[in-house]
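name: query_chain
kind: protein
chains: 1
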Amino acid sequence: MTVAPDGETIPEASAVAIIILNWNAWADTIECLESLARLNYPNFHIFVCDNASSDASLDRLQQWARGELCILPARPDFAEYVTPPGFKTKAAPLAETSTNARLTVIKNPSNLGFAAGNNAGLRRALEDGFDFFWVLNADTVVEPDALTHLVSRLEAVEGAGLCGSLICYYDDPNLIQEAGGCASYPMIGLSRRLAADKKRSDDFDWRALEAKLGYISGACCLVSRDFLETVGLMSEAYFLYCEEIDWATRAKGQFSLVLAENSIIYHKKGLSTGSKTHGRTRSPSSSYYLWRARRRYNQTYAPLGLVALFGLGLAASLKSLLRRDTASARAILAGLADRPLKND
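structure:
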């Protein structure tokens, strides 16, 4: 607690652990870290979890922390968010322990996938006693007040356990990628991004959109300590995709999902995983993990929806064949069958 000049006691800001998963994407991670250095929220610590990168990511991060390396933004209009100096003038350098440092690196033994990679940071942050946990993709840039709005919204709504931001495209900042997350329809094997590809200047009923949330996007999700202690960490059954849907499903009836529409982040979306985004088709590897994750989710929580899921998957495979993309067609079928993908 702190004391204001008039003698009034002011509660200190809740402690937030920011969890960033890096895998062969040090340049994106550094750009994200530079934007986090400009947060106006006063009480946070960053855990960078590295999934055994093979591109010298850890060496590059150490160079950056020592002030020997800088990354300029791909978009000049983001210079105010990410142009150095950042933590070099504000905090201790990157460290392997969180004592008296603003950043901690966790070296995972192999590429553990999305959930297990992030869980390493969540587990450590839980042990360290943090109040909230911000799971944030490495390929994002955040506005300075993004975390402040997330914490404010999650603390304001009784029973809320997960909170999402307004996620916009990095390469088209005035276009919304999704408002917090997606509406989910497991019985037909589909989800729908809320406010997808709408202009930020459009009028929205934010609370109505919030009510439609089936899950919060794993690209940007603030989690309460109560949620983690009650529901648990992310399921590691998927490797990639559907972890956030699983998380929200396990929390049903216990916690609500909320949206902090004034918390703005910019997402490059799937550059390391090959995910589909506007202007880019999904890679075969991404298709494989997506359809395998969908099958595993439905098999666990909505087995009656498997029929619809198989139909959608077969249609997607046929569409790939018609585009002469046989690699993606095979990947979709392998994912649906939950069998290993050859040459993966």
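note: The two ends are 53 Å apart (CA to CA).
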